[in-house]
Design goal:
Blueprint lengths: L2 H7 L6 H12 L5 H8 L3 H13 L3 E4 L4 E4 L2 H34 L14 E5 L1 H13 L4 E6 L5 H6 L8 E7 L6 H12 L3 E5 L5 E4 L3 E7 L6 E7 L2 H17 L1 E2 L4 H4 L5 H11 L4 H8 L3 H15 L4 H10 L11
Parallel strand pairs: 4-5, 5-6
Antiparallel strand pairs: 1-2, 3-9, 4-7, 6-10, 7-8, 8-9
Length: 335
């Protein structure tokens, strides 16, 4: 599980430290946390976090007999993990495909030919310069709210960054998670957030601009190379409702851009924040109760509430999501 194989396992949620830990544990399942930490050249707390990650991935499981742990055979654990991720990915793809199909139905036929005369309820402009001008004009005419979804490649990205919305108009932007670090793009979104907009990061199926929930602008792409060649502006109520519903679904599944005001305004109590720190470290309920000076039952009730608020399916995922939102005392990079 080293080298090339280790790099490929990152796609399954195993970072390099977890890969190394799993490899050592497969050969030495009897090792204590201290022994594992020594071989991985890390402190005990870091080793605890790695073990918690392996536990959540199903590669290590509790041994009910003696309160220890059982290391799952890679020939069983890794295929099972891949299968679970396949199922999750299939569900997400289905949701995104439904969104794409809805958008495709709305703009079907608009990109085939340039219409001689633009209709009142739907019109198209062509060319990158015209796309930017149209978006700027639509945003400047907003009276209540401008919202947008942005995929990395769409020309909408550059246009959104340049938007100057009227005073008192709210702005929400859902931007696609980058596959690779992109400092320039991140600076763009931080500048937008510093200008008063709410920016969230997540899975974005398509690009769209929505103004006052009455007008929608959708990029038209060249089928050959994917480049944005035009912009369809729609005011049909059915079209607007469909895109607004897609945006709200994307917005609800996204997380605030790290370091922004929304990410820092978690509304957590000091005790809830301490508990999330402990969850991310893989601390047991009993240990968390002792450290916080509360009962185990209270810990479990708080954990359940936090998981619901974060939309997490596991304790480790709850801690990770809280870290992504900037809710924890410990920076994300320390995981």
């Amino acid at each position: 599980m080293d080298g090339m194989h280790g790099a490929h396992l990152e796609a399954l949620g195993l970072d390099p430290r977890a890969v190394s830990a799993y490899r050592w544990l497969v050969g030495h399942p009897e090792w204590t946390v201290d022994e594992l930490a020594g071989h991985l050249a890390m402190n005990t707390a870091a080793a605890d976090r790695v073990l918690a990650q392996l536990l959540e991935l199903g590669l290590v499981r509790p041994d009910g007999a003696g309160g220890g742990r059982e290391v799952v055979d890679p020939r069983v654990g890794l295929p099972a993990l891949a299968a679970r991720l396949d199922i999750d990915l299939a569900h997400r793809r289905e949701r995104l495909e439904q969104g794409r199909l809805a958008i495709a139905d709305l703009v079907a036929g608009l990109g085939a030919e340039r219409p001689a005369h633009g209709a009142n309820l739907a019109d198209v402009c062509w060319g990158a310069h015209e796309v930017v001008r149209r978006i700027s004009r639509l945003a400047s005419a907003a009276s209540s709210e401008v919202v947008a979804m942005c995929t990395p490649r769409a020309a909408l990205v550059e246009a959104i960054v340049q938007i100057r919305r009227p005073e008192g108009v709210c702005c929400r932007l859902a931007v696609a998670s980058a596959e690779h670090p992109d400092p320039a793009r991140e600076r763009w979104w931080r500048n937008v957030a510093e200008g008063g907009a709410q920016v969230r990061v997540g899975v974005v199926p398509t690009s769209a601009l929505i103004v006052d929930s009455t007008t929608v602008a959708l990029p038209i792409s060249d089928s050959a190379n994917g480049a944005t060649v035009g912009l369809a502006t729609l005011r049909l109520p059915s079209a607007v409702i469909a895109v607004v519903e897609l945006f709200e679904r994307v917005w609800g599944d996204s997380v605030p851009l790290a370091g922004t005001a929304e990410a820092q305004e978690s509304g957590l109590t000091a005790r809830e924040r301490d508990l999330l720190d402990l969850l991310l470290a893989g601390t047991t309920d009993e240990s968390a109760a002792y450290r916080l000076g509360i009962s185990v039952r209270t810990v479990r009730r708080m954990v359940s509430g936090l998981m619901n608020r974060l939309g997490a399916r596991s304790r480790f995922e709850a801690g990770a999501r809280a870290a992504e939102r900037g809710w924890l005392h410990v920076p994300v990079a320390s995981r």
